[in-house]
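re: the backbone from monday

yeah here it is again, tokenized this time
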């Protein structure tokens, strides 16, 4: 969240900077990462039978700038395949 806030501050302070396309790309990727993190936490709470906690994290995603249809999750790593 801190990095997202810093990127937004940069956009306001330097609206015509040559690095603005890069900052915009980073900001979108940060929002997508935050969305996936919230969804993974919600799924964890679902697995341990805590639906109210899962609901809180899914509610955070409803206020997100990105939607799940906009995101292609990264492939699972070796350890992810073992533990999931």
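seq for it, each position gets an aa:
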């Amino acid at each position: 969240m801190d990095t997202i806030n810093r990127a937004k501050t940069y956009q306001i302070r330097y609206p015509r900077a040559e690095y603005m396309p890069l900052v915009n790309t980073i900001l979108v990727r940060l929002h997508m990462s935050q969305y996936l993190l919230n969804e993974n936490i919600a799924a964890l709470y679902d697995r341990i039978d805590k639906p109210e906690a899962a609901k809180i994290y899914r509610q955070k995603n409803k206020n997100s700038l990105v939607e799940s249809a906009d995101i292609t999750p990264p492939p699972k790593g070796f350890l992810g395949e073992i533990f999931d």
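The chain has a mean pLDDT of 90. The chain has one domain: 2-83.
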